[in-house]
Amino acid sequence: MEIKVLGTGCQKCKEVEKLVREVLAEINVPANVEKVEDIAQIVQYGVMLTPGLVINGKVKVSGRVPNKADIKKLIEEEK
Length: 79
Prior knowledge:
Elements: E1 2-6, H1 11-27, E2 32-36, H2 39-44, E3 52-55, E4 58-62, H3 68-78
Parallel strand pairs: 1-2
Antiparallel strand pairs: 1-3, 3-4
Helix pairs in contact: 1-3
Protein name: Redox-active disulfide protein 2
Organism: Desulforamulus reducens (strain ATCC BAA-1160 / DSM 100696 / MI-1)
Keywords: Disulfide bond, Redox-active center
């Protein structure tokens, strides 16, 4: 599973990355988590508001910090 956290390094972006890693540990799902901070790459996903969350190439969240339950659901949908 490929997970990308899109954001330029703001506190909300760091929070999303932290929550994603916590959820992955809790549900024991292996995944490659990457932080994408390059504006050009973020825009390629069509994300105009960060933080963004991309799972297996699909934009799942943009412009907000999802809670752990939301993240878990999104990851399980892509398993």
